[in-house]
Amino acid sequence: MFGFKNYFQAQNIEAAYEELIKNKQNIIIGGGSYLKMSKVLYNTGIDMSKLNLNYIREDHKYISIGSMTTFREIEINELLKTYYNNIFTYSVKDILGVQFRNNVTVGGTVFSKFGFSDLITPLLTVDCLVVLYKGGEKKLDDFLKEEKSTRDILIEIKIPKEEYIGIFKSIRKSSTDYSLINISVSKKKNIIDEKDSVKNNLIRNIKSYNIAIGAKPGKAVLVKNTIEKNISYSEFSKGNKLEKENILEKRKFILELLNDEAMENLLKDVLFGDNMRSTKEYRKEMAKVLIRKAILEGEELDFKNNY
Amino acid sequence: MILKTTINGREKELLINEDEFLVDTLRKAGYLSVKRGCDTSSCGLCTVLLNGKPILSCSTFSVRSEGKEIETIEGREKEAKEFGELLASEGGDQCGFCVPGFVLTVLAMKKELKNPTDEEILHYMNGNLCRCSGYMSHLRAIKKFMEVNQFENCE
């Protein structure tokens, strides 16, 4: 059964780190909700709840979120709602109940690189940085790729304050269950080249999306956007003119760009797996559907702004 | 170790283990309205208020409540009775096992949301499961309790 023999209330991060490296069985406590599900008896539980690491603040370049910030604080934060068309609220709002989200912390989720995380996936697409006490600042993508577990402390995550369109989608068996697959797409709002055709502007936009896939069920990954190479021009290349105001035709064109061949190529390096929630085949098919839906939704948001 | 905390407005000093969860501490101290349900953070039975926010006492370490204010249903008797009567009149109160946690979440919601829609109420209450009834009777009781104008939402 889970437990720890000793409890250490850290007064500063340095003391927490010194305690952490004393013994391999010492552990930092985030929210503790997932930790308690383990069967491990740890040596010392290190509590950082009094280090004032629950904050969401901004400077001219980044929004910084402290590692002890809860999911509920992210969900209702007004500053975060003004960026990335509220993608973070959407990503965390269906994670169990409000009581659970009042407990779960950003640090516990991000540092543990949980495969089922609904937060890590959108963070990947907005070029999030992690700030570690010893490891310093690094891209979340690079941090997730590190295989070896790090004896370090996550202090905060930093989200660039750029104008992004961000969309998060997930599939769950019930509204408060873990996702059986989740995806996120985001892009910088492009400047539309008025001299260029509507078709070329659309292609330029779609190939600029960052795409991430999570709950597959392993760690979330950022997918290389290969859509450009797979554009099948078929009927649209044969002189079909795409009118500026014709949204239905634009939808058809986007779906043509995101055809099955393009999606297969996009997902060819992503390792989907089986677990009790779903099979790898189902996850892959659903990832294709969700990516299409998300990009369409993103472009529809952009239609209002740019076209 | 000794935990210094406030429970339902009274300062308490409780002897706890370092890795003890709040549900165990509260039940040992006699607050038996706090129920252990799923023990996997899913059902909401063990909900208590910590500094006014609803939390799951089954997955919150007791030490995290040091110097804070804990509220259980024993400390909110008047409002709990008022809501309990509405819940019973709408047919939402059956075995009653989920009710203490449910009531505390409703009280937190009442404080946090002003004129919530049906969708907002259901979303806020997502973490409280009831295996006896459907949730429509709960919704009706909550709306009456929160004095939400039902017709306003229908429009």
Description:
The complex is a heterodimer of chains A (307) and B (155). Chain A has 307 residues and is of the alpha+beta class. Chain A has helices at residues 13-20, 71-76, 78-81, 87-92, 98-101, 106-112, 120-125, 140-145, 198-206, 234-237, 247-257, 260-266, 280-306; strands at 3-9, 26-29, 41-47, 56-58, 62-66, 129-132, 136-139, 154-160, 164-172, 179-188, 210-214, 221-223. Chain A is globular, with a radius of gyration of 21 Å. Chain A starts with a strand and ends with a helix. Chain B has six helices and five strands; from the N terminus they run ββαβββααααα. In chain B, strands 2-1-5-3-4 form a five-stranded mixed β-sheet, with helices on one face. In chain B, a hairpin with a 2-residue loop joins strand 3 and strand 4 (53-56). The chains are: A alpha+beta (307), B alpha+beta (155). At the A-B interface, strand 1 and helix 5 of A face strand 4 of B.
Provide the fold topology.
The complex is a heterodimer of chains A (307) and B (155).
Chain A: E1 3-9, H1 13-20, E2 26-29, E3 41-47, E4 56-58, E5 62-66, H2 71-76, H3 78-81, H4 87-92, H5 98-101, H6 106-112, H7 120-125, E6 129-132, E7 136-139, H8 140-145, E8 154-160, E9 164-172, E10 179-188, H9 198-206, E11 210-214, E12 221-223, H10 234-237, H11 247-257, H12 260-266, H13 280-306
Parallel strand pairs in A: 1-3, 2-3
Antiparallel strand pairs in A: 4-5, 5-8, 6-7, 6-8, 9-10, 10-11, 11-12
Helix pairs in contact in A: 9-11, 11-13
Chain B: E1 2-7, E2 10-15, H1 22-28, E3 47-50, E4 53-56, E5 69-71, H2 77-89, H3 99-112, H4 118-124, H5 136-145, H6 150-154
Parallel strand pairs in B: 1-5
Antiparallel strand pairs in B: 1-2, 3-4, 3-5
Helix pairs in contact in B: 2-3, 2-5
What's the average pLDDT of chain A?
87
Q: Could you tell me how far the N terminus lies from the C terminus of chain B, measured between alpha carbons in angstroms?
A: 56 Å
Characterize the main sheet of chain A. 5 strands, antiparallel
Could you tell me the radius of gyration of chain B in angstroms?
16 Å
Largest interface, Cβ cutoff 8 Å = A-B, 28 and 27 residues
What class do helices, strands and sheet pairing of chain B give?
Answer: alpha+beta
